Amino acid sequence: MAIILNGQDLEQQSELQKRVTAELREKQSRNQLVGGDVNTPTYDSDDSEYMKDLKRTTSLAWVWALIGAIVFGGIIAIMVIMS
């Protein structure tokens, strides 16, 4: 299935693309001159409240990785056997 375009449609599409590109370039240059996007989040390295409830990885993490690898290998083996 194909879409047939005539030359006039292609000219209109290229004009639209040119207009969108010009608008995006203008917006980018305005953001660079003003100092960036107003809604850009800032990171404060002194604020460590987000790390309060984190836990260290236990020494049994390798067991979970091994179980995951075995399950993944089992799924691959089943797919190979079924095909």
Structure characteristics:
83 residues; 60% helix
Structural commentary:
The protein is an all-alpha fold and 83 residues long. The protein has a domain at 10-35. It contains 2 helices and no strands. The protein is flat, with a radius of gyration of 27 Å. The model has no long low-confidence stretch (mean pLDDT 78).
Helix/strand layout:
Elements: H1 7-34, H2 61-82
Quick structural summary:
By secondary structure, this protein is mainly alpha-helical.
> In sequence order, what are the helices and strands, one letter per element?
HH
Largest sheet at a glance?
Answer: none
Distance between the termini: 31 Å
Determine the strand fraction and express it as a percent band.
under 5%
State the secondary-structure class.
mainly alpha
Low-confidence stretches: none
Shape: flat
Q: Count of helices?
A: 2
- The percent of residues in helical segments reads 55-70%
Radius of gyration over C-alpha positions, nearest whole angstrom: 27 Å
Number of strands: 0
Question: What is the average of the pLDDT values?
Answer: 78
